[in-house]
Amino acid sequence: METVLTTPLQEGEIRDLHAGDTIYVSGLVFTARDDAHHVLLDAADKEDALPIDPGEMALFHCGPVVEQKDGIWQVVSAGPTTSARMEMFEADFLDRFKTRLIIGKGGMGTRTLEALKRVGAVYTHFTGGAGALAARAVHRVPAVHWLDELGIPEAVWIFEVERFGPLTVTMDARGKSLYDELAVTVEKNLEAIHARMEEEA
User: Fold this and answer.
1) The pLDDT of residue 195 is above 70
2) How many Cβ atoms from other residues are within 10 Å of residue 176's Cβ?
3) What is the DSSP-derived secondary structure letter of residue 85?
4) Is the peptide bond before 166 cis (omega within 30 degrees of 0)?
5) Distance, CA of 105 to chain centre
6) Helix axis angle, 87-97 to 34-45, nearest 10°
7) In the chain, fewer beta carbons within 10 Å around the N or the C end?
8) Measured between alpha carbons, how far is 72 from 36 in angstroms, rounded to an integer?
């Protein structure tokens, strides 16, 4: 059965998700790569007023390809950025803003996983190379922030989306990470291969 979540997301519905679940999201999503994480956290530390509430939307690790037609922004492609770039910021970001859903690719580290448990949030994987598919789910671009300062890829874009996905929950609020499980499986397979090679030598 498909699960479609609509922003703003509630902690309870996110804590009910399990690693391996497939979900879609509707509502508002904001993009943030490493520069945007830094800007948002710095502004919050200085108690500056933010133009968005990161806790009310899903976070997308993305540097979109956009174009402007008749003064209206349109998304051409919105593939995910490798999430490891944001590892140095993400735990602090989650603690600060209580963002419930992260969309990216490649997984994240232990600090982020612990923050997901504390906050009640999940990390979801969107297929790399499917930027055009993601763009089709974006119905409108209500706003963009820090465009002049950061440029198109690093700016904070607000997307209004409908059934954005499919997204696979790969790190959940219970502390389970499919990436950790994969690493264990790979290590066991490598050990078996090495043992076989030694027997045949």
Assistant:
1) no
2) 17
3) G
4) yes
5) 7
6) 40
7) N
8) 22
Which tokens is 55 given? 């806790």
Query: Among the options 18, 37, 139, 194, which is catalytic?
Result: 37
Give me Rg for the CA atoms of the chain.
18
Active site residue 61: no
Q: What is the dihedral of CA 53, 55, 60, 66, to 10 degrees?
A: -20
- Digit-coded pLDDT (tens) for 123-145: 999 986 778 888 999 999 999 99
CATH number for the domain that contains residue 146:
3.20.130.10
CA distances (Å), origin 168, targets 104, 124, 174, 197: 10, 5, 15, 36
DSSP class of residue 177 equals B
> Could you tell me the two tokens for 132?
């055009």
Q: Contact at 8 Å (CB) between 153 and 64? A: yes
* Whether the predicted model's global pTM rises above the 0.85 cut: yes
Number of domains in the chain: 1
Q: Which two tokens stand for residue 51?
A: 């133009």
State the maximum Cα–Cα separation within the chain, in Å, rounded to a whole number: 69
Report CA torsion sign: 64, 67, 72, 75: negative
State pLDDT tens for residues 83-103: 999 999 999 999 999 999 999
